[in-house]
């Protein structure tokens, strides 16, 4: 590889690496004799094809002469239409046979070239034998997989090239959460190294999930979600390939929603309950809960705005129990 990690490359100009052809397999006496026999066989087949082509051309010449005589006799009224059609069809068939013989001769010529190539030992230093690989895109080298000279096979990665100025976020979202994410949803990108979150937008939700083992050893189905960055601050331009960030995707929003801390809610049967703090007494209240992000839950009905609720109430708290506000 001619370039190093982080080097800038230009599409169609920067030479990334040079590939020498692999040396041909050495032929032992037996293999060489077999290869030479194949060449001789194809040469004999070529001579046979040449003779056959001459026969076809002679037959075509005779058929053309017959067709010319038939046309003269037809104009004089001395020959039937059916006989004329038969002779003209035969001439056309002879012409097609000549073309087929010519193509067969071309095929044999290519077979001779192929057979002779098996006997040759190419020189890797000869002009045109070394292939220079140029960068297909402009950007920087992000990763070098093959630094030293080595044998490669078709499809083997040599290096990765990307444009650090045109990055996107790739997030692994739990499949149960990914079903609510749509292209165009707003995103907040945090923990990237700056003080304020960066705004983003969902550009793609992969159609297939994959299995990943969590830190607790639990198998999880996750989905790749791609996001573009919007109004990226100057400090964020130093973000690079495979940097770690945290994302929050807004799958739903309301400009006028009543919410309470999710930690103040608990279930009783199929109902959501909370304790309202009023006059130093805990009042058990049933509410209708809406959407939740794990931190706050939307209240559809049950308590008005401005009420105070108990956060993480213990099991010892009952309806009507006296409670005291804890000072912070």
Detailed description of the structure:
The structure is a single chain. Helices cover 27% and strands 30% of the residues. It is an alpha+beta fold and 328 residues long. It has four domains: 8-19 and 126-162, no CATH class; 29-117; 168-250, Elongation Factor Tu (Ef-tu), domain 3, CATH 2.40.30.170; 254-328, conserved putative lor/sdh protein from methanococcus maripaludis s2 fold. A hairpin with a 3-residue loop joins strand 14 and strand 15. Helix 1 (29-76) runs antiparallel to helix 2. The mean pLDDT is 87.
Question: Hey, roughly how much beta strand do the residues contain?
Answer: 25-35%
| Low-pLDDT ranges | none
Distance between the termini: 62 Å
Mean pLDDT metric: 87
Number of domains: 4
- Major pleated sheet: 6 strands, antiparallel
Question: Roughly what percent helix?
Answer: 25-40%
Number of helices: 3
Gross geometry: elongated
Keywords:
single chain; about 325 residues; alpha+beta; Elongation Factor Tu (Ef-tu), domain 3; 4 domains; 6-stranded antiparallel beta sheet; 5-stranded antiparallel beta sheet; 16 strands; about 25% helix; elongated
């Amino acid at each position: 590889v001619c370039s190093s990690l982080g080097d800038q490359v230009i599409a169609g100009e920067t030479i990334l690496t040079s590939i020498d052809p692999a040396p041909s397999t050495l032929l032992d006496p037996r293999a060489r004799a077999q290869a030479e026999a194949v060449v001789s066989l194809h040469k004999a087949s070529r001579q046979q094809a040449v003779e056959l082509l001459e026969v076809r051309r002679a037959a075509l010449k005779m058929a053309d002469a017959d067709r010319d005589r038939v046309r003269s006799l037809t104009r004089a009224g001395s020959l039937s239409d059916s006989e004329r059609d038969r002779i003209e069809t035969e001439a056309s068939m002879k012409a097609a046979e000549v073309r087929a013989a010519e193509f067969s001769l071309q095929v044999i010529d290519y077979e001779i070239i192929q057979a002779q190539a098996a006997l040759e030992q190419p020189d890797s230093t000869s002009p045109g034998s070394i292939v220079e690989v140029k960068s297909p895109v402009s950007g920087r080298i992000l990763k070098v997989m093959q630094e030293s000279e080595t044998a490669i096979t078709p499809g083997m990665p040599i290096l990765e090239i990307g444009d650090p100025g045109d990055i996107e976020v790739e997030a692994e979202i739990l499949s149960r959460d990914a079903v609510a994410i749509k292209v165009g949803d707003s995103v907040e990108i945090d923990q990237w190294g700056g003080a304020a979150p960066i705004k983003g937008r969902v550009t793609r939700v992969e159609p297939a999930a994959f299995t990943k083992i969590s830190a607790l050893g639990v198998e999880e189905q996750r989905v790749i979600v791609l996001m573009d960055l919007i109004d990226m601050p100057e400090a964020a331009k130093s973000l690079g390939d495979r940097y770690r960030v945290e994302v929050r995707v807004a799958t739903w929003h309301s400009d006028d929603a009543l919410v309470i801390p999710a930690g103040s809610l608990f279930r009783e049967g199929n109902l959501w309950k909370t304790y309202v703090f009023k006059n130093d007494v805990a009042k058990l209240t049933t509410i209708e809960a809406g959407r939740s992000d794990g931190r706050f839950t939307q209240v559809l009905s049950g308590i008005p705005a401005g009420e105070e609720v108990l956060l993480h109430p213990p099991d010892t708290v009952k309806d009507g129990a006296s409670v005291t506000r804890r000072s912070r």
